[in-house]
Structure formats: structure tokens, C-alpha cells
Amino acid sequence: MKKIFYSLVIFLFFISGCSILEETNNTLNYVTETTEYFNELNNFAEETSTLISGKSTNNELQTELESKLTSLEETIKEYNTIEVPSIAEGIHQDITNKNEQLIEIINETQQNGEVAIDQFKESEIYQTIENLTSLKDQLEQLGVE
């Protein structure tokens, strides 16, 4: 009887340990994916800022911006579907809310399927990206960054 009891206790400890390990791995994966996402947002901001201040023609600028905005929109939508560990549900909700703002800005800067360069320059896309990436501090508080 004691052997069965001890075996049961060991089995229960093993199962609970596996779920803790799995949750830790999920959190690590989430932090890694979110950090990569923030890096992509920063790269977009740097590249488009340089592009806008460069001496390219309006046609070249428009084509390049359209490409970058389309890519950014796909990245945002892809990020919104990642698996979120329970410990990160709050921060992920904040990120997806700001992602929706970014998608709205992207849509507002396009007219008839083309980027309105002046509207893009006047948009709040850079401020929204900065607000999003400022959440990195909260991400680091998950204790794994």
C-alpha cells in the first residue's frame, strides 16, 4: 500500500513538473518571438524613415513604401496569431490592441491601393511603433529576457 502511495505521489510531482516546464518553454518562445517582432518594427521604422528622407523619386518611394507596408501588415497579422502563455496574456492584449492601431494607420495611408506619401509622413505610425516597442520593458519583467 505504501509503495502505491509513494508511486502515486512521485507520479503527481512528475506531471506537475512537466506542466511547469512546458509553461516555461512557452514563455521563453513567446518572449523570443515578441522580441523578434519588436526588432522587425524598429527595422521598419528605421528603413522607412531613411527612405522618406532620401532623394528617391516619388514613384520609387511609393513603390518601396507599398512593399514595406504590405510586409509590415503581414508581419502584424502573423504575430497576432502566435501562441500566448497564460503569464503573458495581459501584455499580448496590449500588443494586439496597438497592432490594430498600426493596421488602421496603414489602411489610412493608402488611397486606391497606393500609398499616399504625404499622408504616410503625417501619420502616427512611428509614434505607434515606439509605443509598441516600449512594451519591451513589460516583456522583460516576465523574467526571461
From TrEMBL:
Q: Which domain of life is it from?
A: Bacteria
Give the matching InterPro entries.
BipD-like_sf, DUF6376
Signal sequence segment: none
Alphabetically ordered keywords of this record: Coiled coil
Coiled-coil boundaries: 58-112
Whether Coiled coil counts among this entry's keywords is: yes
Query: Mind telling me what this protein is named?
Result: DUF6376 family protein
Q: Which organism is it from?
A: Ornithinibacillus salinisoli
